[in-house]
Amino acid sequence: MDTEARRAQRLNLPAVIAGATLLVLVLGLLLYHRARGGTNTVALASTPKPVTVVEARASTYRHTHRYVGTIEPWYAARVGPQFISAYVDTVLVRPGAVVKRGDVVATLDCRNASSADQAVAMQARALERTQAALADKAARMSTLLKGGFAAPSEVEMQKAESESKEAQLLAMKAQALSASLSVKDCVLRAPFDGEVADRFVDPGAFVRPGTAIAALVDRRMVRLTADVPESDFQSVPPGAPVRIHLLSTGQNVTGTIARRAPAADPSTRTIHIEIDLPNRDRAYPVGTTAELRLDGGEAIPATELPLAAASVRARKATVVVIDGELAHKRTVQVVGESGGSLFVAPELAAGSRVVLEGREVVAEGDRVAAKLASTPQPQQAERAAVPGAAPKQEL
User: Fold this and answer.
1) Is the Cβ–Cβ distance between 172 and 126 less than 8 Å?
2) Dihedral pair phi/psi, residue 343, rounded to 5°
3) Helix and strand numbers, DSSP H then E, in the chain
4) What does the pLDDT profile of the chain (395 residues) look like in tens digits?
5) How far apart (Å, rounded) are the C-alpha atoms in residues 99 and 190?
6) By C-alpha distance, which of 230, 221, 200 is closest to 212?
7) What is the pTM of this model?
8) Given 2.60.40.790, 3.90.550.10, 3.40.190.10, 2.40.30.170, which CATH number is that of 67-72+221-296?
């Protein structure tokens, strides 16, 4: 029985192997057909490339100069001693305080100067009394000279001594005036009506001539100063209207150029201009930044498109224009730029479809599948030019 079972197993073994081999072949054939079915047999070059396009718009462009200036006070002073070195006794103001002309800002400990001033005053008084006595004596001796009761030499000596004492008296009075100035320098007063901009020292500090204790400004009228390139000298004549944006307050105001320097700065080759702005309510802080805009020339026709839709080099812009289903690269003249818009010569017709996204993968003559951008692009018609820098966006 065991012999017959072994013989049956040996007869069935080839059939099992053949069946397994056939199953493997069938599975391999199915996998091959599946792999072939997922392979793209169409050439990529013949497939339209997806791009996003925008339509160029007819617009106008006006050249605008943009400069950065500083708001400065009409008057500014740094209050401190000019003749004497001493310790600070009191400082009566802090930043933001409003002062009137003559108000005390600070005082110094000037006991030594006061003593010296009193000593000089007493010496001057003594010399004045001595000189008066000598002058009277010389006058009496002059009367005796007529009667022969006094020698001429004695009279001349008396007059010379009186004149010498008078000269000493004048010198002592000059010294007393200098000492009194030193004493007056111990009380520091506001030179004009204004506000305290800064406080530099506190009581107890030692100050010398020229050391500032506090800074005062008068900003009832402010000056907007700016330096423009020498090439823009004709563009900033006195009386020219200016649009001003104050960065500190966000306000937009208008003004006119009040003054223009007749010469350029020798180191920077820039022209200094000033604009006067009334500031009675003290709304404009000084020492802050402002942007100036001046229109130049007349508005000219141009074609506007997004700045991202072109590659700009020098005064030329390269764009990809869609004609039907084909892409063509064109080079056009740049008129200017502002914000996110580029303005080119009208040789690029309004309504032309320009590639906004996908320019990098599109070559000349490629077929494209264009999709119109749905987001409208900003339209501005002014170019901003900052002195010494490339054109920048207008705010």
Assistant:
1) no
2) -110, 125
3) 3, 20
4) 566 666 666 667 677 777 778 888 888 787 777 777 666 555 555 678 888 899 999 998 888 888 999 999 999 999 999 888 889 999 999 999 999 999 999 999 887 655 555 666 666 676 677 767 767 766 766 776 666 666 676 667 767 776 776 777 676 666 656 655 566 788 899 999 999 999 999 999 999 998 999 999 999 999 999 999 998 998 899 999 999 999 999 999 999 999 999 999 999 999 999 999 999 999 999 999 999 998 877 788 999 999 888 989 888 999 999 888 888 999 999 988 877 889 999 999 888 999 988 888 888 888 888 888 875 544 444 443 333 333 333 33
5) 7
6) 200
7) 0.58
8) 2.40.30.170
Indicate the class that CATH gives domain 51-61+299-383.
mainly beta
Location of structure tokens 């063509």: 328
The residue ranges of every structural domain in the chain are: 1-41, 51-61+299-383, 67-72+221-296, 76-194
Same topology, domains 51-61+299-383 and 67-72+221-296? Answer is: no
